[in-house]
Amino acid sequence: MRKVINFFLLLMLLITAGCTTSSLKWSPAGEGETSLSGKKAVWKLNAVNNGLYLFYYIPFFCGSPTRPNRWDYKFFRHCTGEKHALMLLNSKNRQLKADAVEDVKIKYNTNGWIGLGILWSRSFSASGIAVKSKKNR
Question: What pLDDT shows up at residue 137?
Fold first, then answer.
């Protein structure tokens, strides 16, 4: 019986492994586009991070909020909160030659998978605008 349970857990882990990555996508901002604060927008950002949790509260593994698009995971760490969304959006500022991310919007999603709510998927999708400060125009 123990082998069956271990096989089942391994199978679920493999099936859902692709669902627990963090990703960050960016596209150029429109000509003359600014953030709500008036700073020059240079990129539009969209970020997603997913995680698997046992009984909703116990983190099993999540995508890394500091290393998006790499299939990096954080085991037994909660990485689907607001501060993780901000980390993910800001993770490529240097590469994108941006000073900050503004106008951030975050949407959370939670799904209980296996009967009795044993395995849960928790995620966020966030969007924002990477900006340059006025003095760097």
Answer: 46
